[in-house]
Amino acid sequence: MLEARDIHKYYSNGKEKLSVLKGVTLKISEGEIAAIVGPSGAGKSTLLHILGGLDKPTTGEVFFEGKSLRHVSESWLCGIRNSSIGFVFQFYHLLPEFSALENVMLPAIISRRPSLERHALEQAARILLAEVGLRHRVTHLPAQLSGGEQQRVALARALINGPKLLLCDEPTGNLDSENGKQICQLLKNLNSEKKATIVIVTHNTEVASLASKIYKIKDGKLE
Predict the structure, then answer these.
(1) What is this structure's pTM?
(2) 48 pLDDT above the threshold of 70
(3) Which of 174, 168, 169, 131 has the alpha carbon at shortest distance from 153?
């Protein structure tokens, strides 16, 4: 489903070049959970952003379902990110003025899915919030939710368009151990029950233990 070939990424200020990724190659098969583990500054999040089309490599190629992301238009890439790839970030990125329900609905509204009328979309969002244990928190604003609840809203939001691939960047990084375990269990259930393909970036060995395939990255290289 997802493949990276010889990915290099560097940033330059004119005189100096900072190399973040140094020839990363990996392959993620459909239906598996893969973890990318390593210390802070190893290049984990940069790699995840490149895999999801949020950033571009300096050299190398990423393939999603066999199609290279190198020369596609930005509009095509935006469409794929919205419809086929779900993102879960460490810092949630919920819109503070919108309720939990509205935050979950937003990606589907942006994609203007013709198959879902407003009522049907709201029902789909409510079902997702119930599945992550937030049936009674749908009208609450992010500020009225705990960190664990906000992350569960973010997970439901990532699933609203039925993505084929879920990319998670330190999904338990801001949570206590109990809430972290709940998020891990939700991810495990998504994989076993809905056959979701999941890539998790983490430095947490317990989170990484969910994966059937583990990539270790250090100083921009896979070990």
Answers:
(1) 0.89
(2) yes
(3) 131
